[in-house]
Fold this sequence. Notes:
By secondary structure, this protein is mostly beta strands.
Amino acid sequence: xxxxxxxxxxxxxxxHPNGSMPDQGSLPLHLKLQRLTRVSAEAAVCQxxxxxxxxxxxxxxxxxxxxxxxxxxxKTNPTLTQLTVGLGWNPRRTTGKExxxxxxxxxxxxxxxxxxxxxxxxxxxxxxxxASGAVRHGGDNRDGQGDGDDEKLFVNLTKLPADIDKVVxxxxxxxxxxxxxxxxxxxxxxxxxxxxxxxxAQQEILRYDLSxxxxxxxxxxxxxxxxxxxxxxxxxxxxxxEGGLARLCQEHGIAAEEEQDD
Length: 262
Ligand SMILES: [Ca+2]
């Protein structure tokens, strides 16, 4: 078993022994997942505003997906161009640190890797807006308080670069190792899609409630938006990883240091 205390290589966070080692040669870029540049409470989007807004979007026609299920969005929502990916979870009920779940989008090529580290959209203020304008992070929520979506990703499908084949929607638990947290301890985690193409008729397209046994998982690919036959499809993935956001970055071709708690 690999000694997880030993760095895999200089500057790179060690990987949990249950995780496979990435090929160093495929990780040309090094992303530091800095807490220092997380948005301040003042700068973050008003979560209560988001939640009151979201409640008005609920649609009884929304489809509940299970792990592995796919939806052809070009058929269910042929006019879909803009959408919101909403992530929610319940705040911690027991003592200890709050659960701070972080939504991240990886814009990847057909090979599943990002082109550059700038194809990762996450809480760091330098990475909240993709250069193409296609994906934007709505702000960091650190405790899951309140009803409705806790974090959001805004996606404009028409602005996605042609060589971006998939948008991977992932969620990780901030500083999970230090806080001794995992997805098995988090209640009510879900991801949902809202069609924002026609503001007057915003509607929830689908919802995927996380119901897996994820007792050792600290990062998870919730879903993928992917190109198929000229349109876009959605897949409820539910694939878990150990190693938090740093591991997710490695999965998509970017070396990253593990996040540190305050
Ligand atoms: Ca968060």
